[in-house]
Amino acid sequence: MTAKIIDGKEFAASVRGKVAEHVAGLKADHDITPGLAVVLVGEDPASAVYVRNKGKSTLEVGMNSYEHKLDKDTSQEDLLALIDQLNKDPKVHGILCQLPLPDHIDEPAITSAILPEKDVDGFHISNVGLLGMGLKSMVPCTPLGCLMMLRDHHGSLSGLNAVVVGRSNIVGKPMANLLLTDSCTVTIAHSRTKEIEALCRRADIVVAAVGRPEMINADWIAEGATVIDVGINRIPAPEKGEGKTRLVGDVDFASAKEKAGAITPVPGGVGPMTIACLLANTVTACCRANGLAEPEGLTA
Ligand code: GUN
Q1: DSSP assignment string, 233-295
Q2: Is 121 a catalytic residue?
């Protein structure tokens, strides 16, 4: 079987389109413009690119973007003061503090200082707890994007066997909770899991989020299974010339696509969904803050 390739770029564009439509409605009907504040501490080049892209995408869907770029030596106290100011600002519906933070800043102290209802990353302990209980919360963007793609492909996920490979707080654990809430039978596999290949081979859905380039190949995949590849790994590509690199996922795409029923590529799969879901979370947060109906299809 040759798999259907799930096009994350196209899917993300449709999510951004729905967000833009909802934003236009909020402006026209209620004179409200959702606002997202993004905080960057220091000059990490990769983080600076992410923050720039987030700001640009926010403006493109008609929302307000508030960028706060702080010096790498900013004290934790000053960062907390900024977060307090954003928490209190009624124009700001979503707050994201780009990680990683400099070593002298305690990350959990910062993520738990953001008001849970403005926590568009879904990292606050209250949101983690609500998600674990299957209650309404802000959901981390990458797993939310994966869930949207899985629902779109399968319709109902009820009763399907799902294996999530990777147990991170940002992807693996929230992904498993989302799948459980959608009535999948969920296993979380990780580096210590016994017979991990055989376990994955029994799955209708495999979500790969381990950060190990091309670890999962066709032998791990059941005929016709759906494979969601969250990994983004840069590896040497001598075939492209000396010193060149290329991006690959946690799945060996070339072999897996011959066995899977559907699969996300890297790049162009899950990646573009993350920012789209950040925008979706921001419009959701804005609706909740104003007691308005949430946008359909943009939440978990
Ligand atoms: N750094 C890398 N990915 C993320 C993300 O999703 N959210 C935040 N806040 N920082 C990140």
Answers
A1: EEEE-GGG-TT-EEEE-SB-HHHHTTT-SEE--SSSSSHHHHHHHHHHHHHHHHHHHTT-PPP
A2: yes
From residue 211, alpha-carbon distances to 54, 234, 276 in Å are 23, 10, 22
Tell me if residue 23 falls in helix, strand or coil. Answer: helix
- Which residue has the least CA distance to atom 9 on ligand 1? 98
CA of 99 to the centre of ligand 1 (A): 5
* Residue nearest atom 3 in ligand 1 by C-alpha distance: 99
Report the distance separating Cα 50 and Cα 99, nearest Å.
Answer: 10
Q: Where are the domains of the chain?
A: 30-116, 141-272
Compute, in angstroms, the gap from residue 219 CA to the centroid of ligand 1: 32
Confirm whether 98 is a catalytic residue: yes
Do 30-116 and 141-272 agree at the fold level?
Answer: yes
CATH code: domain 141-272 is 3.40.50.720
Q: For 254-291, how does the pLDDT look when each residue is reduced to its tens digit (9 = 90+)?
A: 999 999 999 999 999 999 999 999 999 999 999 999 99
- In this prediction, residues 26-48 reach a mean pLDDT of 97
Which CATH fold topology does 30-116 show?
A: Rossmann fold (3.40.50)
Catalytic residue (choose from 18, 118, 119, 121): 121
**Ligand 1 mean position, distance from CA 98 (Å):** 5
C-alpha to C-alpha distance for 149 and 145, rounded to whole angstroms: 6
CA 122 – ligand 1 centroid, Å: 10
Supply the pTM of this predicted model.
Answer: 0.97
Nearest CA to ligand 1 atom 1: 99
Is 73 considered catalytic here? no
**What's the full length of the chain, in residues?**
300
Q: Which residues have any ligand 1 atom within 6 Å of their CB?
A: 96-99, 121, 141
150-164 pLDDT, tens digit per residue, is 999 999 999 999 999
